[in-house]
Amino acid sequence: MECTIQWLPASGMAFVAETGSGHLLTMDGAPDGGGRNLAPRPMETLLAGAGGCTAYDVVLILKRGRQDVTGCDVKLTAERAPVDPKVFTKIHLHFTVRGRNLAEAAVARAIALSHEKYCSATIMLGATAEITTSHEILPA
Predict the structure, then answer these.
(1) Exposed, middle or buried by CB within 10 Å (0-12, 13-18, 19+), for 47?
(2) pTM of the model
(3) Pick from 66, 82, 135, 139: CA 20 to 30 A from residue 128's CA?
(4) pLDDT < 70 regions, the chain
(5) Pairwise CA distance, residues 75 & 41, whole Å
(6) Where are the domains of the chain?
(7) Which Gene3D superfamilies does this chain map to (predicted)?
(8) What's the CATH fold of domain 42-139?
């Protein structure tokens, strides 16, 4: 896996990432750090990536378990260390899973498997952050 980051000097503190799969992602800094707030901060993209990684796992695990899942949202809330390096110290993931006749045990198992075995992003972030999860199931 690879990624190339290019600074856009005319924009202040904006950067463009080109991923190994050929996709572009723009990031920017806060105005008090020279940015113009035109795109997500790099740490926000890291948090979003973790959410996407675990949501992907949960949906895939539920589908493979023949659960009729129709939606999956994850709300992440994070705390960072007050001094540099300002690593994530706590991350909470709240899953809202929608579907028809979803088994509570299947949803809880899918989240646990992602958290403990499959989600590279949250497992890696778990080296510095306490990661907790919760969930709710809604009808389709």
Answers:
(1) buried
(2) 0.93
(3) 135
(4) none
(5) 17
(6) 3-33, 42-139
(7) 3.30.300.20
(8) GMP Synthetase; Chain A, domain 3 (3.30.300)
